[in-house]
Write a structure and sequence with these properties.
The protein is of the alpha+beta class and about 375 residues long. The chain has two domains: about 160 residues, FAD/NAD(P)-binding domain (3-Layer(bba) Sandwich), CATH 3.50.50; about 170 residues, 2-Layer Sandwich (D-Amino Acid Oxidase, Chain A, domain 2). The chain has eight helices and 19 strands. The strands form three sheets. Strands 1, 2, 9, 10, 11, 12, 18 and 19 form an eight-stranded mixed beta sheet that branches. Strands 6-7-5-14-15-16-13-17 form an eight-stranded mixed beta sheet, with helices on both faces. A three-stranded antiparallel beta sheet has the order 3-8-4, with helices on one face.
Length: about 375
């Protein structure tokens, strides 16, 4: 016999765990289904730390979502009696005219965000770990920092369970479909379930559950590296703002030493390797390490020390690199929350809240038009 719920959430990573909590908080009967462990390191919700920032070059429309996300990160930490958000300040920098600097500046001006602009030379004098080109333009926004992805997933799941949510790991969704009178059925290797609504939040596996998005939401292999600094004090959270930096070598992101004994660094669109997440190599090789050390050797030489850890993760990119938060065409009871294009984790709690609003009321107080499926 099928078990019935108000909402089934397929994928209990960052977005799915937050959705489970906020849905359960509304008093709904929630089932969360995760194909791997909770948490796990095969998708996009791991890595010890993840950047959060208000200055947003990707588009000024994200800033209202971020303001609410900051509030919810703090509320969640207080409720769980665990610190999940750390403030370091954030740096967005690049050569004159770079889209990263100019976009971040535009978002600050559009929303009245506190910020300072300076040259690379001035930034280097202020933060000893940096060695940026002297003529680069830098924007420093004091509210940026990092959040803890694994702890976030665990906290959201625990809070959802405390409210009665049924969360199951190692139980992937194999198939789903509409029920004749409305609602959906979902099958796993263990059981069949029914619900009024289905939330698809499987990250890189979205193409398996919503084939129409298979060519829109494209998984891409990424590599994270942690390298031991020669002067660790220059790369502590008190001394090193999180950074998004545009160089001739590519766009890199960096976070201070926390949780792993090394400066964390990644390169957006690392080696351009795309494909199904199950077919991606999870082995990190010398070429992967060299891609990260190119940046360290030139711009952060004090941190170009012994490797402490190397790890893969997966971006799931849309053509415009904006999110997908929308009802699935042809399936009125299915909501897609996926394809966050490598910059979504900072939004986890507010997207969970948005999911709950859409399920409970059919609307959100935020403008979600940029995230509609019909834009493709």
């Amino acid at each position: 016999m099928s078990r019935s719920y108000d909402v089934i959430v397929a994928g209990v990573g960052g977005m799915g765990s937050a959705a489970c909590f906020h849905l359960a908080q509304r008093g709904l009967r929630v089932l969360g289904l995760e194909r791997y462990d909770i948490p796990h390191a095969l998708g996009s919700s791991h890595g010890a730390t993840r950047i959060i920032r208000l200055a947003y070059a990707e588009h000024p429309s994200y800033v209202p979502l971020l303001v609410r996300a900051f509030e919810l990160w703090r509320e969640m930490g207080e409720a769980a009696e665990e610190r999940l958000l750390y403030t370091t300040g954030s740096v967005d920098a690049g050569p004159p005219g770079s889209t990263l600097f100019e976009g971040s500046l535009a978002s600050c001006k559009a929303h009245g965000l506190r910020h300072q602009t300076m040259t690379g030379a001035e930034l280097n004098r202020r933060f000893a770990g940096y060695r940026l080109p002297g003529d680069h333009l830098c924007l420093l926004q004091p509210d940026g920092g990092f959040v803890l992805p694994e702890r976030s997933v665990v906290t959201h799941v625990a809070m959802a369970q405390a409210l009665g949510a049924d969360i199951r790991a190692r139980e992937p969704v194999c198939d789903w479909g509409p029920l004749p009178g409305g609602g959906v059925w979902v099958e796993t290797p263990r059981a069949r379930f029914e619900a009024g609504r289905l939330v698809l939040s499987p990250g890189a596996w979205i193409g398996d559950l919503a084939p129409m998005l298979g060519t829109v939401a494209v998984p891409e292999r990424q590599v994270l590296g942690w390298f031991q600094p020669g002067h660790p004090d220059r790369f502590s959270p008190d001394a090193f703002p999180v950074a998004n930096l545009e160089f001739v070598e590519g766009r890199y992101y960096l976070l201070p030493v926390w949780g792993v004994p090394g400066l964390k660094i990644g390169l957006y669109h690392h080696r351009g390797e795309r494909g199904h997440p199950e077919a991606m190599s999870r082995v990190v090789d010398d070429v992967d390490e060299a891609e990260l050390r190119r940046c360290l050797a030139r711009y952060f030489p004090d941190a170009n020390g012994p490797v402490m850890a190397l790890q893969t993760c997966v971006f799931t990119n849309t053509p415009d690199e904006h999110f997908v938060i929308d009802a699935l065409p042809g399936a009125r009871d299915v909501l897609v929350v996926s394809a966050c294009s490598g910059h979504g984790f900072k939004f986890v709690p507010v997207i969970g809240e948005i999911v709950a609003d859409l399920v409970a009321t059919g609307s959100s107080r935020f403008d979600l038009s940029m995230f509609r499926i019909d834009r493709f």
